Automatic annotation (TrEMBL):
Pfam families: Hint. Keywords: Developmental protein. This is Hedgehog protein Hint domain-containing protein. Residues 3-172 form the Hedgehog protein Hint domain.
């Protein structure tokens, strides 16, 4: 969701667009997109469709890759989407407030392209679900610290390239070599296919 109240596809966002997020005090805020950690418009990829029932009985469907981090309700540490189980409570937005929603189903599907926008808080609300900007590494806060030099670069010099994959790839290589135990293992559980 943008500051203007529009719901838009991640593929339509650009650097500078204001999107819904959550600050460290658990307040809903709008903040700008600083860049994209991943922006792959082509190709088909595996996505999880996580079906969530909100307290008002509305159903929310989050479309996310299994290696992306999302926040459980009343838990400061997000988990890989692929580790979410039916019955888990996720942090969602209902009536412009943070709330909880119960996972009722998880299905696997293919979808074209994937995007991971970067915000100052390292968080973003996607499909009314609070998600981390980060994937692959199970510690959101470690990933957030690792992105600080890039954010400082942006503040000092501005965006010099739409693609920050060189920085992300360097971090991934470091983590794989030295911190393998914090990387996503690639396993997930689903209840069906779409």
């Amino acid at each position: 969701m943008t500051r203007e109240g529009n719901v838009t596809e991640l593929s339509n966002l650009k650097v500078g667009d204001q999107v819904l997020s959550v600050d460290n005090g658990q307040n809903l805020i709008f903040e700008p997109i600083l860049g994209f950690i991943h922006a792959e418009p082509n190709g088909f990829y595996d996505f999880l469709s996580i079906f969530i029932t909100a307290p008002c009985n509305d159903t929310i469907v989050l479309s996310v890759t299994s290696n992306h981090l999302i926040f459980l309700y009343k838990n400061a540490y997000p988990i890989f989407a692929g580790k979410v189980r039916v019955g888990d409570d996720l942090q969602i937005v209902v009536n412009e407030k943070l709330s909880y929603g119960k996972v009722v189903d998880v299905k696997l599907r293919k979808s074209e392209g994937f995007y991971a926008p970067l915000t100052s808080t390292g968080k973003i609300v996607i499909d009314n679900v609070l998600a981390s900007n980060y994937a692959d590494v199970k510690n959101h806060y470690l990933a957030h610290i690792a992105m600080k030099p890039y954010k400082w670069w942006l503040q000092m010099f501005g965006l010099t390239s739409h693609n920050i994959n060189w920085y992300i790839r360097s971090l991934q290589l470091f983590a794989e070599k030295w911190l393998g135990s914090i990387m996503y293992d690639g396993t997930f559980e689903i209840s069906g296919f779409m």
